Amino acid sequence: MQIVPSDPTPPTPSGATPGDEISCNARVLQGEVEWFGEVLDARLELHFQQPSKVSDIREIPPPDLSSDPSHYAELVREQAMGFEERLVFILALLPHIRPQALDTLFIRNQNLDRGFTEFGGRRGSSHGGFLPTVETAAFLLAGEELDRRFRITSFFERDHPLIRGELLRVDIPGAGEPFFSAALGVTTEALNRVTSGATHKPDYSISFPAKLITTRLEWDELVLAPEVLEEIQGVNGWLKHSRTILGDWGLGRALKPGFRCLFWGPPGTGKTLTATLIGQTIGSEVYRIDLSMVVSKYIGETEKNLASIFDQAQNKRWILFFDEADALFGTRTQTTNSNDRHANQEIAYLLQRVEDFPGLVILATNLRANIDEAFARRFQSIVYFPMPDRDLRLRLWKGLEGSGCRFQEDVDLEVIAERYELSGGAILNVVRHGAIRALDRGDPAIGVSDLVDGIRKELRKEGRTP
Ligand SMILES: Nc1ncnc2c1ncn2[C@@H]1O[C@H](COP(=O)(O)OP(=O)(O)OP(=O)(O)O)[C@@H](O)[C@H]1O
Ligand SMILES: [Mg+2]
């Protein structure tokens, strides 16, 4: 009998396997490294006045990536990288993907018996190869032409798209040392993307006070009054058509590209859930920033941390969701001490970034009155999430039943929906509490007393009596 080997990586429905993706990235990087090698050779020939095929390195064209499907090519197109950007980017990538390609730069200056200062570079503590610095990039791009050297400085400044876009990293040079001696590298994120294709999702940390929020619920499970849904559809409509409106219709000169939205209403009424679903619809990640956390804990660091969130968000089309927005956007406090002054400065900074952000920013609060009036006027949409009425509550209860939650036969959801004014979040808590109680008792379904007990707890939480 003949054994037919089975295919270890079955193709995904789209026809591409993760393995395919990696080979595709590898093939393109191989080409890019070879191009880099030719450019480096030419630069050295020109520098040491040896015969060369070219009189300027720019005569050596980089591979054409205009229709290549790899992640690297995608990035090159996304950032509209030209000859110089590509050369700097591949230089920064080399220690990770082909470290020996830079070994030539270790050649010694025979006259002085030391390395060539003009090549820049540094050594790592355990990496044996040549690690590029800004000087290395300058040598490649400018050689000894001062004019070019001055021009390329902008490449390594904070505003350059490759740096803002979190692709290149330029470290701070040692104290008193020239800027060009700064180490040049790539971010882990960029490296992962162009090699394994993995997109990295930053973790919540002190320097990144934002958290990715997701849901397994779908739009049709969101229970909102028609007028609320209509408002939300307005936001979705903007996301869908903003490109056309700003571009083809030429309104981009008058309108700012961003969209700011305020969700307000009592706790548990679906504000966070709605924000997450909006993200799901347009395929954007939603990051939640807890402002009470940002403001109280990191006075002084706030600007830097927020800047990093905004920069990344801008590049990756994230939706920013500011929870407990009143912490920052509340009526600004009269300054009495230096901490207040500091907080006010941070508020001003944040407001500016929110205003300038070209994507969707959603702010959520329980108390509309806490939002500064001047600021409220700047929202394109203000959506009120009321407590659900009887019909909506019934839909919420039935929704949970529909997704598999079991109630005993004598549980009349209509009566419960009618009698108890609870938010969607509270209903969910009641069901969780009831399920635990029932299962503890060995009962396969939630009974009336479980529900009543849970409802009491929820109402007490809100300071109400059942
Ligand atoms: N309108 C709703 N439709 C469906 N499910 C809801 C709704 N409101 C709340 N829920 C359920 O309750 C959970 C909590 O709601 P959510 O976190 O969206 O409330 P919220 O308005 O953001 O509250 P808070 O003001 O406390 O942040 C949701 O994940 C969902 O399961
Ligand atoms: Mg919420």
Rg measurement, Å = 29 Å
Q: Helical segment tally?
A: 18
The rounded distance between the terminal residues' Cα atoms is 74 Å
Beta-strand residue percentage: 5-15%
Number of domains: 3
Share of residues in helices: 40-55%
The residue-averaged pLDDT reads: 86
Question: What low-confidence regions span 5 or more consecutive residues with pLDDT below 50?
Answer: 1-15
Record field, number of beta strands: 10
Q: Mind explaining what this structure looks like?
A:
This protein is an alpha/beta fold and 466 residues long. The protein has three domains: 18-195, no CATH class; 210-384, 3-Layer(aba) Sandwich (Rossmann fold), CATH 3.40.50.300; 390-461, Helicase, Ruva Protein, domain 3 (Orthogonal Bundle), CATH 1.10.8.60. It is 46% helix and 9% strand. It has helices at 18-47, 71-78, 83-97, 134-142, 146-152, 161-164, 188-195, 226-246, 271-282, 291-297, 302-316, 326-329, 338-356, 373-376, 390-402, 413-419, 424-441, 448-461; strands at 108-109, 114-115, 168-170, 184-186, 210-213, 259-264, 286-290, 319-323, 360-365, 381-384. It has a six-stranded mixed beta sheet with strand order 5-7-8-9-6-10, sandwiched between helices. It has a two-stranded antiparallel sheet with strand order 1-2. β1 (108-109) and β2 (114-115) form a beta hairpin. The N and C termini lie far apart (74 Å). The structure holds adenosine-5'-triphosphate and magnesium ion.
